[in-house]
Amino acid sequence: MELGIKNKVALIAGASQGIGRATALTFAAEGAHLALCARNRTALDAVADEARERFNVSVYVEPVDVEETDALQAFVSHAANELGRVDICVPNAGGPPAKPFLETTIEDWERAWHLNLRSAIVLAQAVLPGMVERRWGRIVTLTSYTVKQPVPELVLSNTIRAGILGLVRSLAGQFGKDGITVNNVGPGFTETARSRQLLEQRAQSRGLPFDQVRHELEREIPIGRMASPEEVAGTIVWLASELAASITGQTVLVDGGSYKGT
């Protein structure tokens, strides 16, 4: 199936592991060139080498902490200079810590805002002018199914990431006329280090074996398992494709049916 993104340039934040890594390689498999950032240069280089060797695409990498606005803006500028432009942008960052509300601090809230919402705003402001000029662009944010169905111990993520939905709807309404779509993907529990960490915390707090807590979680997921990073990546890439050109302002959950709403 032709997705219409061959030779497009896809910028992916948090691309060194997990869903970000899978997203980078899935774009590369479709012939898109890559601009990748994360904090770990060694892990980034490994993803870039794999993309080049397997799919013969161009890759620009830069170690960046998405909480650092100047560095993030500079990365977008460098990527556009190296690869010619940025057609597709996937804001992505690790989730804030799992804490009960009364154990959170103002510093926790400040960091969650910088990590998960402010970074998406900075990236959108940096890539949109070029997309408007070319009259084509895709922004696909990556959050969590908790934006629709909060998880009790994830109050920081539940709150801050919900703000992404307002950003997505606002940008979709403003820039649709310019050939730009803006959507959000909300994974449920996925086979990543982040999910394992959350389950380990649950197991520890309840004094139960990890495998028991994992089994209990998977029984609550209608498909009976966690998603793979590649399944989430496939949704992101599809939303960036020409096939999804009429879809904008939406949140697509990749949660195995965990969301109980309509």
Tags for this model:
7-stranded parallel sheet, Rossmann fold, 7 strands, alpha/beta, 262 residues, globular, 8 helices
In short:
This protein is 49% helix and 14% strand. The chain is an alpha/beta fold. Strands 3-2-1-4-5-6-7 form a seven-stranded parallel sheet, with helices on both faces.
**How many DSSP-defined strands?**
7
Q: How many strands, what sense, and barrel or not for the largest sheet?
A: 7 strands, parallel
Q: What is the CATH top level name?
A: Alpha Beta
How many helices? The count is 8
Q: What share of residues is helical?
A: 40-55%
% residues in beta strands: 5-15%
* Fourth-level CATH superfamily: NAD(P)-binding Rossmann-like Domain
Judging from the principal axes of the Cα atoms, what is the shape? globular
Which spans have pLDDT < 50 for at least 5 consecutive residues?
none
Find the structural class using helix and strand composition. alpha/beta
Overall mean confidence score, pLDDT: 96
What is the rounded Rg? 18 Å
Report how far apart the termini are: 30 Å
Protein name: Oxidoreductase, short chain dehydrogenase/reductase family
Pfam families: adh_short_C2
Family: Belongs to the short-chain dehydrogenases/reductases (SDR) family.
InterPro entries: NAD(P)-bd_dom_sf, SDR, SDR_fam
Q: How does this model look, in words?
A:
This protein has 262 residues and is α/β, with parallel strands linked by helices. It has one domain: Rossmann fold (3-Layer(aba) Sandwich), CATH 3.40.50.720. Helix content is 49%, strand content 14%. The protein is built from eight helices and seven strands, in the order E-H-E-H-E-H-E-H-E-H-E-H-H-H-E. The chain has a seven-stranded parallel sheet with strand order 3-2-1-4-5-6-7, with helices on both faces. Strand 1 (9-13), helix 1 (18-29) and strand 2 form a beta-alpha-beta unit. Helix 6 packs across helix 7. The longest helix has 29 residues, at 106-134.
